[in-house]
Amino acid sequence: MSELYQEMIDGEWVLRLPPRASHESICATLHAWVRRSILPATPMQLLESRSEIALAAGQVFRPDLAVLPYGGGKPFLVAEVINQEDHHPDTVLKKDVYEALRIPRLWMVDPRYENVEVYHASQHGLVLKQTLMIRETLEEPLVPGFSLALKLLFGGTDSGAPWGAQKDF
Question: N or C: which end of the chain has fewer CB within 10 A?
């Protein structure tokens, strides 16, 4: 999806800018690697990138990646790839909602700095557990077997998820 889209945040429709090619490549890589880790018998489903999810009254989001229990329900893993021209809704507004809803895991993927912030839900809200840099590996215990070297996410190539050589963020 490389066109404008809308999300409802706190009851207000917010027009979001179309993602750049590099953003879409990162999303495709994340999806490919999470998909590899979800076995057919696993009770979880990976939604298509920016699938519309009604999380609560007045909250209709389209996250870059969402993993839900099979059959529906609240996501237990959400990833937002930050767009530098349009980051406030993801990094502030939506993050506050994810925190209030106690989404178990949130990945904030920042192409500008080639890092991933990993948040865990706690009784006190979202807690930053890790900030992973380009030379590190993202692993997620909630998705058994998931392991992704960030160098592949931010600039490498992988046969399962092609990466465009041009960084346009």
Answer: N
Beta bridge partners of 54: 60
| Mean pLDDT per 10-residue section of the chain, whose length is 169 residues | 85 90 94 91 90 94 94 92 85 91 96 96 94 97 94 70 40
Closest by CA to 114, choosing from 135, 89, 93, is 135
Q: Are strands 115-122 and 125-132 parallel, antiparallel or unpaired?
A: antiparallel
Pinpoint the alpha helices (H) of 70-149.
Answer: 88, 95-100
Please give the helix or strand (H or E) that residue 96 lies within, else none.
Answer: helix 95-100
Please state which CATH number belongs to domain 5-154.
3.90.1570.10
Task: Return the amino acid letter for 165.
Answer: A
The candidate with the shortest Cα–Cα distance to 106, out of 134, 76, 86, is 76
Distance CA 116, CA 130 (A): 8
DSSP 26-54: HHHHHHHHHHHH--TTSSEEEPPTT--EE
Rg (CA), the chain: 15
